[in-house]
Structure formats: C-alpha cells, structure tokens
Amino acid sequence: MVERCHQVESIDHVQLAMPAGPKAEAMAEGFYAGMLGLARVPKPPELAARGGCWFERSAVKLHLGVEDDFRPARKAHPALVVLQLDSLCELLDRSGHTTRRAEDVPGKSQWYVDDPFGNRIELIPG
Q: What kind of fold does domain 14-125 have according to CATH?
C-alpha cells in the first residue's frame, strides 16, 4: 500500500478552451456571466496578454484559455451545481442555448448545455 502523505483537498479552478479574439471573449461573457451568473474577473496582467476570460462566483472558478488549434470539449466537461435549475434551463433554451436532459447516472438529475464554442457543460440541481 502506498503511504498517503499528500492528499488532494479541492479543485482550485477548471479551464476550458476557447478561440481567440474580442468577439469570442464577448460571447464568453454573454454566456458565462449573462446566462450562468458567474462574474467576469480580471486576469493577472502577465496572463491577460494571452487572451481568454476568467469567471467566478463563490467557490466556482472557471477559466477560458485561448487555444490556437481550438476544438470544443464535447465529452470532458465541468459539472455545475445550480439553484433554480429549471428557470436557468428555460432561460438558456429561450436564448438559443438548447439544454438536454440526461440520465447517465440512475437517480441523478442532470442536464447538458453547450457554451457558445461547443464546450459541453453539465448542470446539476442544487
């Protein structure tokens, strides 16, 4: 048996990829801040030149980093716990971000939505 002297305690943040450019950053802000309610926070100056956006709310920290050969994460995804999930799904659907009910885990309610770049996001009721 391996001795456990170091243990993972929590996740500091999750990073997804996005395409480069101010238009993409505006789309990210519209979705993550406007739809999901995460506040956009400034990146440290030494990282801001790389592009991308950071969003936070309470313990949730989601970073979007620019990837030159961008391809959306269609399987890998963050799972976000959401209060009033039904109303968020209605808002997303009305705004053109179609939500999909899933039953991948028996007895667990879950929905999926794609961000403006095609990255999959899981939504779980809180």
A: 2,3-Dihydroxybiphenyl 1,2-Dioxygenase; domain 1 (3.10.180)
pLDDT by 10s per residue, the chain, length 126: 566 677 888 899 999 999 999 999 999 999 999 999 999 999 999 999 999 999 999 999 999 999 999 999 999 999 999 999 999 999 999 999 999 999 888 888 899 999 999 999 999 999
Residue 109 and residue 119: Cα distance in Å, rounded?
A: 20
Cα–Cα distance list, 8 to 4, 5, 14, 78 (Å): 10, 10, 15, 18
Q: Domain coordinates of the chain in residue numbers?
A: 14-125
Q: pTM higher than 0.85, yes or no? A: yes
The one-character DSSP state at 116 is T
